[in-house]
């Protein structure tokens, strides 16, 4: 295990937290501690949390702070090697055979290889950050493969040989926890559970992301989103919804819609499920932000 | 092997976590100690956070983690009872091996009671019958359970997509002359089977037999989940994992605290849907509800929950012991309300009927 206490000038969690804030991501102490540890220990960072708490944003901000390209692998049920690792460019190979005639050609050369996210990262481990998004959506088979990938950082291509990373790349995994990840995968990572931010932090996030929104509006929206999250909804609003709701209501208000009405009309930005809307219909008035000018 | 005295509490902490059932590997312990070193540590919070991150503590077990942390690092003896509870649980778990004998005896008398009550047949043939049925389930389940298409592909004589890689390799052997196009087709994977078993008082006669059946399903299926519904929701999939049925049923019996109690199916199903991880089990799954649908509470919650469930599941079938009669019509408001969203309402009166349904549901759509 290689421990590197200082990475691009960041030597403790507080440094990283400041850098993330500069990159427009408001991280709390616990998140910056976990992220710092993952960088220092060279282990992948596993972020779990409800949809919309800003897991992917955190990874992107981390990429920005480290000055690395974020390469995203979106997982889905049935993801396979051709989507995650590499694929041969068959039409080009075919053409090459036809054009070569009697002369020798190497069909499995560099120019016929199409890189997919995992291979791309292996080839440039110091300039990229690998974001494996929503790993819980992938099959168990893919998870088992990732387990191998994350410990060796090698990909073997039958036709050419093994590609090995010269150093361990920075990897962030996110999961919505629709299913439990394999214990071995969790063990290999530094883990952090991202919760909904508290009201003060969420108001700051709204202010940072949506510059048009007045502070009073931000606070009011955050308070009522807090109420909504206590209700047994199918899709509780995430942080992104809070920001969009505040923006949408502000826009309507600037066009002359009065305050409580502006929130009510833009509710579709925060609640995106018909059942949830009908469930809340009667009590919406009580939960909605009141005057916020 | 000796180590610096200062490491003692950290190693003790890792052991305490392991004792409480957290899966902690030696690697993780080493990384945890390295992390604490990296962070300073400036105060206890640093150690607490490092442990949480490196031991991958899921949010629902934070309270346990906190208690252990306080016990090891802050010497809070007051917290010891919480720690003790954990130990008790482990002891209780061992006790099941002894209670297993009693459990098994109970089991047989249950079978007998059911035989006289329901079938009015002599005891022996029925019991053999059930064993036969369960054997059939165990044997046929892997072939007959519903399957979905996977994105993975395999070689096929007449598939639906050209295997470019293989065809090209073949053509390269003949100076690029394509003689044959190889084809692939999708692999299939078994759909998850989700059994929701009513264990309330009104299902008393059936509970034991249904748990036995659930045990076989968990054994035979590639992917299955079992929950019991009563006054609360209990996940018993893990308890049913051991292949020995006596041991598995004893563990399940211990997990279900509300057996033969009241019925609040609506609340239990809402609880199921409100945990994202559980709701995820239902996604694309074949859901089988084994219940008489006699809801004590308001039927509204139950109807709503089943409706939601039907939207995420592949199919949802309701097997009721009352539906043994082919002319059965649901009369309770709850069951009548969910009828439109059910794919099938059928007979759940005997193990054989339930088994037949489970083995044929792949062909029903």
Tell me briefly what this model is.
The complex is a heterodimer of chains A (293) and B (365). Chain A has 293 residues and is an alpha/beta fold. Chain A contains 14 helices and 9 strands.
Q: Which helices and strands appear, and what pairs or packs with what?
A:
The complex is a heterodimer of chains A (293) and B (365).
Chain A: H1 13-22, H2 29-41, E1 45-49, H3 55-66, E2 69-74, H4 81-84, E3 86-88, H5 90-100, E4 113-115, H6 117-123, E5 128-133, H7 140-152, E6 154-157, E7 161-164, E8 170-175, H8 183-187, E9 190-194, H9 199-209, H10 215-230, H11 239-254, H12 259-265, H13 274-280, H14 284-287
Helix pairs in contact in A: 1-2, 1-3, 9-10, 9-11, 10-11, 11-12
Chain B: H1 8-19, H2 26-39, H3 44-54, H4 62-73, H5 80-119, H6 123-144, E1 147-156, E2 161-162, H7 164-172, E3 183-190, E4 193-198, H8 204-220, E5 224-229, E6 233-235, H9 245-255, H10 265-274, H11 276-282, E7 286-290, H12 299-312, E8 315-320, H13 333-338, E9 344-347, H14 351-360
Parallel strand pairs in B: 4-5, 4-7, 7-8, 8-9
Antiparallel strand pairs in B: 1-3, 2-3, 5-6
Helix pairs in contact in B: 1-4, 2-3, 5-8, 5-9, 6-8, 6-14, 8-9, 10-12
